[in-house]
Amino acid sequence: MKTYGHFIDGAYVEPTGGKWIDSLNPYTGEAWARIPQGCAQDADRAVQAAAKAMHEGPWAGMNASTRGKLMLRLGELIAANAERLAEVEVRDNGKLLAEMLGQVRYNPEWWRYFGGLADKLEGAVVPIDKPDMFAFTRHEPVGVVAALTAWNSPLLFIAWKCAPALAAGCTVVVKPSEFASCSTLEFAALTKEAGIPDGVFNVVTGYGPEVGSALVEHRDVAKVTFTGSDATGARIYAQAAKTMKRVSLELGGKSPNIVFDDCDIDAAIAGVISGIFAATGQTCIAGSRVLVQNSIKERFTERLVELGRTARKGDPMLPDTNIGPVTTAPQYRKILDYIEIAKAEGARCILGGGPAPDLPGGQFVEPTIFADVTPDMRIAREEVFGPVLSIIGFDDEAEAVRIGNDTIYGLAAGVWTKDIGRAVRMSAALKAGTVWVNTYRAVSYMMPFGGMKHSGIGRESGIEAVREYLETKSVWISTAQGVPANPFVMR
């Protein structure tokens, strides 16, 4: 069983307290690696290393073009190690190798994009209205960044958070989920191989109350970026506010996938299945509410269930597996609890509805679909984070918008229609950070991603992401000669 160390100041180190956490393979249920159980002292060591790199040494004096070239080199190393990194993620979180390998192979694009952007973060000369003044702006790195990532796509979240942070000139301390830390620790070695100076990228593993809280409260951390639940995000937001830290949060969702009667029904059915059963439903953008126009609801539901029944459960390493295990035992129990809550509230289970028997690990849930769901049911309002779909009917656009927006969340939405006017109207009316039309779960390093309402604050990916890690400084230079006429008034 492999034993990992924290990655601090360019080296793997043992935890201060000498404690370890077994990393369990969700498919087999067996421990396959050990990670450090960090503490506040470990978090402090990592922040001190990041702060030193931020203000001293080669990173502090490095120009943006050189920083960008190192990031490009890191992208090449990720590509060369994609298969190995993807297999580590599958052992750690149980998601399909097909999905993880696709993500890791696409991952270098973030490092190439933001590496290329590093030396293009230009300020501006302002044609100021004050006489005898030269005014300009400059963009400077915010400082040390604490990046707290989730267990469902660790390396993707590192790319989303750390690539723009490094492009801006920041240094980072990553605290991955204790359920899936190994791929992040493997990745850390590639940063050193790429030539990124010691202390720029650090990883401390352990539990949130011990390591995560210490990072959020640390006086030398300037920015916190977090992916996870809205409840945890709210606590981090309040905690960070005590020291006026910058914060960006990518949180949960209860995304509507809205199907109109003029859609390509085959494409819509496939899109709905992908939106909820891909990744075993363990994704913040899961289209967990399918809103179907009543004129086609019965026919659509029948065909949806037919396709859902074909999903193959099993070993996530195999190419023909569609549904893998739930990553964590607490999440597995939560999903089953929500299924029972839905049944008790009167929702009608038409597919699945319980644990999948006779599979290793004991953490498989049957792909589940509920009909007769009303918008006020808990199954339609609360994030399940599993392969559980609610079907809700609607009559017209106005009702679809009303139901779609009737949620505390606002991360994503899907619309299925052949009417371009309706597509434009719906994309404007839906309160979501991302609206997909005739597709679902598409992401790119070029497109901003983030949520509204309880789904978060700030954006990841795209040019907007790098602004999350920059401070704008205004510089005034007087070109006047002599003394101001009246030094007691504002100029």
From TrEMBL:
Domain called Aldehyde dehydrogenase: residue spans: 13-475
Domain of life: Bacteria
InterPro entries reported in the protein's UniProt record: Ald_DH/histidinol_DH (IPR016161), Ald_DH_C (IPR016163), Ald_DH_CS_CYS (IPR016160), Ald_DH_CS_GLU (IPR029510), Ald_DH_N (IPR016162), Aldehyde_DH_dom (IPR015590)
Keywords for this protein: Oxidoreductase
GO molecular function annotations of the record: oxidoreductase activity, acting on the aldehyde or oxo group of donors, NAD or NADP as acceptor
Signal peptide limits: none
Claim: Oxidoreductase is one of the keywords in the record: yes
Catalytic-site annotation from UniProt: E250
Pfam families per record: Aldedh (PF00171)
Family from the record: Belongs to the aldehyde dehydrogenase family.
The protein's name in its UniProt record: Aldehyde dehydrogenase
UniProt source species: Neoroseomonas soli
